[in-house]
Design brief:
Elements lengths: L12 E4 L2 E7 L4 H8 L3 H11 L13 H4 L9 H8 L10 H10 L9 H16 L19 H14 L11 H23 L12 H5 L3
Antiparallel strand pairs: 1-2
Helix pairs in contact: 1-8, 5-6, 7-8
Length: 217
């Protein structure tokens, strides 16, 4: 179904064949969608700069080769992706956006245009957090600012720039990733609103990820 979609023609649900009053929402596996996004030249340049420095002088000491050139097994590790885009400051996360900003301020030529990448990394972190709420205290409530259509508008406007030749296709997502994100965003917002109408006080969005379905009895 997803492969047949085009910009502005998103079909993110279908009717339950056994209950006309219910819809079945279509979602891609969010963590794996995000892993498909992070294949950027700026990340590779940052890694090459970092690995030439002594360990105690690195801006991103936790940035390792597996983050930009993972082996077949490592490609399945969602943690490598979340470590790159996270804005948390501790020993576990890489803080790539900080490294990009610092090297750009040092006038590193290959990273002079990296500010949008750093900003987009933080944007992805916030979006991923929205889709990965696990505990009641962080559940998405009806008044939550997480529920907005900005991510959908961003993807649509980004794709429109490609169609108008304002940016190169290589600077956009793959067709499959863009469509998967668009469908998942629409479905996520729609079923959150639906759950509110039937009495839910909050929604734990991580429960909609594919891994939760795979381990269910």
């Amino acid at each position: 179904m997803v492969s047949l979609l085009e910009l502005g023609l998103v079909k993110h649900f279908f009717q339950n064949p056994y209950d006309d009053l219910r819809k079945i929402f279509v979602l891609s596996n969010t963590p794996h969608l995000f892993k498909c996004i992070l294949r950027w030249r700026h990340y590779q340049v940052l890694y090459e700069k970092e690995r030439k420095l002594p360990g105690n002088t690195n801006v991103c000491p936790k940035f390792i080769e597996s983050h930009i050139g993972p082996c077949s097994f490592a490609k399945m590790r969602v943690s490598l992706m979340t470590q790159c885009i996270s804005n948390q400051s501790n020993d576990y996360f890489v803080l790539v956006h900080v490294g990009l900003n610092i090297y750009r301020q040092r006038l590193t030529e290959e990273l002079e245009d990296s500010e949008p990448t750093a900003m987009f990394s933080l944007y992805l972190n916030n979006l991923f957090d929205c889709f990965n709420r696990r505990y009641p205290g962080e559940g998405i409530k009806h008044s939550s600012p997480d529920i907005d259509k900005v991510p959908i508008i961003l993807i649509d406007s980004w794709e429109m720039e490609v169609s108008k030749n304002m940016i190169l296709p290589d600077n956009y997502l793959t067709k499959e990733t863009a469509e998967g994100l668009r469908v998942t965003l629409q479905s996520m917002f729609a079923f959150i609103e639906y759950l509110y109408t039937v009495g839910f006080d909050f929604v734990l969005t991580s429960k909609a990820n594919q891994d939760k379905i795979e381990v269910s009895d």
